[in-house]
Write a structure and sequence with these properties.
The structure holds 2 protein chains of 2 kinds. Chain A has 10 helices and 3 strands, in the order αααααααβββααα. Chain A is mainly alpha-helical. The termini of chain A are far apart. Chain B has a single domain (5-271), classed as Alpha-Beta Barrel (TIM Barrel). The chains are: A mainly alpha, B alpha/beta. Bound molecules: fe (ii) ion. Fe (ii) ion binds at residues 138, 170, 201, 245 of chain B.
Chain lengths: 245, 272
């Protein structure tokens, strides 16, 4: 194409992204703004529906400014609009220091909200063919559509608006998609159970074979007591489709 | 079950779609961008719908009129999706939605110029070669021309001819454009190369001021667009599939089914 044709297309695209008035050849008076409005609405709607908690946390003008600067400064890469909001996280991390200072929980909240969308939509993963026969003597077969989030703010437990620096700590949250309902679930984990779950995820060892390691982790040496300590957690995971039986 | 008329399948329909006895479309249309690499609940729903109805694709992100290069990695995913779901038709918009390496997620008008005709046609041909199927390009609605040097209809006909592709004849868009740019839609249709028509879209719109209609797909089809539909399909060589599009402000499915059946009755009347 001729440079001039390309240039007119670029001017229109740039105007849609930044909303700064522009002269474009041969346009009808008073019509151009419809493009900016329509394009920006799509982007803002996609961001608001992916991040409703963040939308609630930020003040109205902060959210509006964030959407505007993101769309104007960042070149959206994903051809699938529902995936585009993922790109906001890195943008905030890199360029919105004022916001991350004011809201220390912001990045983790964005991650948390994005994971819910991602897990709901993610391609189906291959489930283990083997079953978990027993909590103690057979290796736990886990739902592969899961991961453990390590958090410094309890965004999975508390309304983000009431989270402050004093909430800083070590939190673990299991996220998984239930195979029968396809619902995405979150489960707060104590450090013990977060350790246990990561341990069984990374190895195919039964708890009975972990020996000293598991006794130390839970600080319980009697196997029967240890089993009874773990049982309710195990049963919850089985009931929720997180452990395959 | 309808013979000619299908419906744009939306997640908003939920599982009511398969349970609605009145809703018996000839096919369903989805945007591949909303379904590629999707699993879980929605894949399961799409599987149920696909077991009952043939699937057409109407893409959003190809950006055939862009100065940017064609994204063949994305197109590879589209191709895989279409073979997995046995997609019958792949239509896309004669517009651009990506520029300077940034997606815009909406449809911007291409300048009606000869160099754009050459550029777009060459890209359509490459896409057709890559996918091993004809691309069906849609006349889009637009709110202002940009840097035009030829008429819209000459622009479209030249691309159809040069790219040797097929046409998605969106009759509502032609009505909207006629209104927004002061031309007679029938005259436009009379000048269009109708031998290329492979597929028809029908939809509603929102009139936002005395001289502007926005193509929202958020209202029922209006009577003048039904009239234009009857006028147009009589001019075609034979039957083609017709789609009812409804993207916003979605009513009860029984109400959509009535609209669909109305379209089907017109088709039966003209084509049988
Ligand atoms: Fe259309």
């Amino acid at each position: 194409m001729k440079d001039q044709t390309i240039e007119q297309q670029q001017l229109l695209a740039a105007y849609c992204r930044n909303g700064v008035d522009v002269e474009i050849l041969g346009t009808t008076d008073g019509r151009l703004h419809n493009y900016r409005r329509l394009v920006f609405n799509v982007v803002r709607d996609a961001l608001s529906s992916t991040y409703p908690l963040t939308y609630n946390l930020l003040e109205i003008n902060e959210w509006e400014d964030l959407c505007k600067s993101f769309f104007s400064d960042h070149k959206c890469q994903d051809p699938q609009v529902w995936r585009m909001p993922f790109e906001l996280i890195k943008y905030v991390q890199e360029f919105k220091v004022d916001l991350t200072k004011k809201y220390p929980q912001l990045i983790e909240l964005l991650h948390f909200e994005w994971l819910e969308v991602e897990y709901y939509m993610m391609p189906d993963q291959k489930f283990p063919e083997e079953k978990t026969k027993d909590l103690w003597t057979s290796p736990w077969q886990l739902n592969p559509e899961s991961e453990i989030m390590h958090l410094t703010y309890p965004v999975h437990l508390k309304n983000a608006r009431f989270i402050s620096r004093s909430d800083q700590g070590m939190y673990f949250c299991l996220i998984y998609r239930q195979p029968d309902t396809f619902k995405v679930k979150f489960l707060n984990l104590s450090p013990f159970f977060a350790w246990l779950l990561s341990r069984v995820k990374d190895s195919s060892v039964a708890l009975s074979e972990m020996g000293q390691e598991i006794e130390d982790a839970f600080n319980i040496s009697d196997p029967e007591a240890l089993k009874e300590n773990i049982r309710p957690f195990f049963e919850k995971l089985v009931a929720d489709g997180m452990v395959v039986t | 079950m309808a013979e000619f008329v299908g419906i744009g399948y939306r997640k908003d329909f939920g599982n009511a779609f398969l349970e609605c006895a009145e809703m018996q479309p000839a096919f369903i249309e989805v945007a591949p961008e909303n379904w590629i690499e999707v699993g879980g609940y929605w894949k399961n729903e799409l599987r149920k719908v696909a077991d009952k109805y043939p699937i057409f694709n109407h893409g959003l992100s190809l950006s055939i009129g862009s100065p940017d290069p064609v994204d063949f990695d994305f197109l590879e995913k589209v191709k895989r999706f279409q073979s997995e779901w046995d997609v019958k038709i792949y239509s896309e918009h004669l517009s651009y939605s990506k520029c300077d390496n940034a997606h815009l997620y909406d449809l911007l008008p291409i300048p009606f110029r000869q160099d754009a005709v050459d550029h777009v046609s060459e890209r359509i041909q490459r896409v057709q070669d890559f996918l091993g199927r004809k691309l069906v390009i849609e006349i889009v609605s637009y709110y202002t021309p940009v840097a035009a040097e030829m008429s819209e209809v000459d622009f479209i006909n030249a691309i159809l001819d040069k790219a040797d592709c097929e046409l998605l004849f969106d009759i509502n868009n032609i009505y909207v454009n006629g209104f927004n740019h002061n031309y007679d839609p029938k005259g436009f249709i009379d000048s269009l190369d109708l031998s290329r028509v492979k597929y028809i879209h029908m939809a509603g719109h929102d009139k936002v001021s005395d001289d502007l209609i926005i193509d929202t797909h958020g209202q029922p089809i209006i009577d003048p667009v039904f009239d234009l539909f009857e006028y147009s399909i009589g001019k075609l060589n034979g039957p083609v599939p017709v789609l009812l599009e409804r993207d916003f402000n979605i009513p009860e499915l029984t109400e959509l089914a009535q609209e669909l059946n109305h379209l089907e009755a017109i088709c039966q009347n003209v084509w049988k």
